[in-house]
Amino acid sequence: MAAGHAHPLYRAGDSVVHRLPAHVKIVVAFVFVLAVVATPREAFAVFGLQFLLLVGVWVAARIPPGWLATRALIEAPFVVLAVLLPFFATGPRVEWWGMSLSVDGLLAGWNILIKGTLGVLVSVTLAATTPLRDLVSGLSRLRVPSMVCVIATLMLRYLEVIAAEARRMRLARVSRGHDPRFAWQLGATVRSVGALFLRSYERGERVHLAMLSRGYTGAMPAFTTASASTATWSVALVPAVAAALLAVSGYWVW
Amino acid sequence: MTASLEVSGLAFAYPDGHQALFGVDLRIERGERVALLGPNGAGKTTLVLHLNGVHRAGAGTVRVGGLEVTREHVQEIRRRVGIVFQDPDDQLFMPTVADDVAFGPANFGVTEPELSLRVKEALDAVGVAELADRSPMHLSGGQRRRAALATVLACDPEILVLDEPSTHLDPVARRELADVLLGLDRTMLMVTHDLPYALQLCPRSVVIDGGVVVADAATRDLLADADFLAAHRLELPFGFALD
């Protein structure tokens, strides 16, 4: 599929993973994340093995680790909490490099950090191998209510249009000497957010009108999406099932 | 033969009481290209939205290919009347051009394999076949306009209605669009302020002002009548003159 212009998380390719139908990948990613979340936090080795499963998927999808790492940085703000927990949690404490850390806090922080990281990596992997439109059609194939899919489709499309509009409005303000570095100049920015909302609302009405004019009756037409054979499912589910088995083993072995 | 479009005695007032149309009569034969001219606020857009049943006539009737615009027929009417809106960003809402072109015919019950064929034909007709898998966001103004035209052509309409097709187009894109439109061989109603464009594309023009048709004549004759144009807030751009 030609995807010359896609979202920044998508990495065009023709690998096995790219070619999988989107709904299969969504299910696999979902099960994988559930397995990660269900893994007991003390089962350190299980997380390592789950990570190796992901590495396997990246190799199959030919995604370089650096590319993934930069996009996984979105997690950073959430990590702050995980880092703070060992300092502020209560319970038994351990000395480490002269700092007194809570054992419970350390585990809780680790729990957030590792599950969050694996979860983000799974999501980034899904996004890297699946164009947005396929994600939406995959969701609709998984019987997500069609209204939700329509909203997702429209949001994906108009986010860029609205962002471009916001840029033009900012440029027009700046061109007239607006320099929103000072608090008292915020007013104009706030008002233009209001104007942008109204414009977007009006655009929404026009888009709806244009959709009605082409026969839209409230339900999106069902575009046929590729179905997946049992064989495809069974191969694709391998990492997800393996992750789930590892999670279960975490309760017994570790 | 039945006319493509037959509007008779059409009157309409908005819910706030503002009356926009006071008895409009208009007949367009199959294959005609007609320009709909008039100053801002004359009622052009209101008239256009009656053609596919977005507005319902307060009085009078609209028929498209012999079929009256009523609540029961609204879906078939919308297939027959293909409106290309002024801002292609309002029209192109799907992630790719091909999806957007498929949207209309799919709504009207066209299924695969005919659907793909329709999409291909429509994109070919406007010369943007290579853009099928692109996002509308990344097209030039002219490409976007032609893609918007394709979304309507794919529905195989009885009459094409174009709202200000030449706005925001550079001169080359404007001319290329004209070439595409002239090559389509379809019944067309073109709402425009671009009088030279009307002259180039439409042998016949209808002028609306104050909610009524004030003139219906050959475009060339209309545009040559400077007094008439001035009376209805119309004028040829600087440097243009017809005699």
What features would you describe in this structure?
The complex is a heterodimer of chains A (254) and B (243). Chain A has 254 residues and is mainly alpha-helical. Chain A is built from ten helices and two strands, in the order H-H-H-H-H-E-E-H-H-H-H-H. Chain A has helices at residues 16-19, 22-38, 44-61, 65-72, 76-88, 103-129, 132-141, 146-175, 186-213, 230-252; strands at 93-96, 99-102. In chain A, strands 1-2 form a two-stranded antiparallel sheet. In chain A, helix 2 packs parallel to helix 10 (230-252) and helix 7 runs antiparallel to helix 8 (146-175). The longest helix of chain A has 30 residues, at 146-175. Chain A starts with 15 loop residues before the first helix and ends with a helix. Chain B has ten helices and ten strands. Chain B is of the alpha/beta class. Chain B has helices at residues 44-51, 74-80, 88-91, 97-107, 114-125, 141-153, 171-184, 195-201, 219-224, 226-231; strands at residues 5-13, 19-28, 33-37, 59-64, 67-68, 81-84, 159-163, 187-191, 204-209, 212-218. In chain B, the strands form two sheets. A six-stranded mixed β-sheet of chain B has the order 6-7-8-3-9-10, with helices on both faces. In chain B, strands 2-1-4-5 form a four-stranded antiparallel β-sheet, with helices on one face. Chain B is 36% helix and 24% strand. In chain B, helix 4 runs parallel beside helix 6 (141-153), helix 5 crosses helix 6 and helix 6 runs parallel beside helix 7. The mean pLDDT of chain B is 93.
